[in-house]
Queue: 2 jobs
Job 1
Amino acid sequence: MKMKGMMFNITAICKFLLPLKYARRNFVCIFPIIFTTTLVACSRDQAAPPPVETQTDFRPIQVKQEKPPEIKIKDKVSIDAPVINQLPELPRGCEVTSLAMLLEHAGIETDKMKLAEELKKDPAHRVIKNGKVHFGNPHNGFVGDMYSFSKPGLGVYHEPIQELGEEYMPGKMVDLSGKPFQELKIPLSDERPVWVIINAEYRELPDSYFQTWETGSGPIKITMEEHSVLVTGYDDKYVYFNDPLTGKKNKKAPIGDFEKSWVQMGSQALTYKVE
């Protein structure tokens, strides 16, 4: 309605000004002034209400992160874990037997024979070419025969054991391989035993105990003294472990010698985590 009023005013003004003697001279000057005045009046009538100022707080919301409680390393530890003898069924089955002990301590029901069957195997056969032994790689799967010393064999390293453990405890197996020996004390202080690869003499071995094999994934240095146990504790002098070869619980070895043996065999260790 206000726009129609504005149009009417302009038309009336034009009719009034045209007859004037000086219309042609002054109309151009007068009309913009009147038009502008009328338009300004319309604009004021239709002006939007002043904007409402709002304040927006862009500060990030502070969410308190709950940190898992730190495990204090104890001076000495002794864990009551089940002991299982690998003999007589598994002469070379120390690794799966130690895994069976670890799983049982975690509350998982299984047995060494079932684990031995399920464990990944390296299919390579032992052959000698140009004076060099060609055989499997224990990082890839169990090498040789686990059930008899009358057939060639060796054992298995931590990767296939961890893979098998994950089938029983999905997402809970913890690989400590390559870490300092001191870090094994963390799960032990939390009452969780540790699966390890060492040698059967629990000390650092001379080079004469080792040989190099050719495998499908490259040469590897091995020893027939390779062994696996479940570490159950320690103090300032000894490491304690369940030995599947003797069936002895909390067997002990000097902590310094045991550590050197473990490092020499590649610092391989596994445990599990709890929620």
Job 2
Amino acid sequence: MRTIPIPSSSVGDIEIKPPIDLIPDEYTRKRNENFYVEAFFSNNDQSAVGFLNCLEELKFSVIRTASDTQLFEPQWITRVQKSVNGKKYDGILLLFAKIDLQVVDINKILDQFTSKHCPELKNKPKIFIFQKGRSVRSDSTARELKWLAGYDIPNEAEMFIIHDKYEDGTVDLFRQLSVRMKELVEQKSTNSLEFQRNYQLTLISTMTK
């Protein structure tokens, strides 16, 4: 049996729901190939491509959806729903790498993967990585904090959300995750995916099993 590591970090700039002592260290699954993984990114994004290569080296089957415009497309979510419903996946990981999310209600994206819409994923881990691109407006921070603080995900949702605002290119979430994953695999230890950062990263979890 394999396990899914849950990233950990210092409390400082992280918001966690519910209390951290209720969040499990790992979820058990049979094999990485049975975890649905899809990435929405630009083919020119080498850090995202490198992270996807890392996942594939770990035997995850990664669906790569390249976007020339890097604009969010609602049909992505509908297609993923159709792909997972009726299947027996052990969980789901969706990555939005430097995708423009300005006109997107992220709350609605998350809601589409609760048991109401994806019953086969009930009580299974659902991981979302939202990395906003550089084309952000001056008031974007306030809007981000509003949806992050205001979204009330049902406890049964078993969601882990990473929200990263990519700005100047000096530090990239996916590049650091790739390095940490390679190090942990070499150490044969995946208890944590901590990584050094000098920018604000927001994590929210409803993993209460």
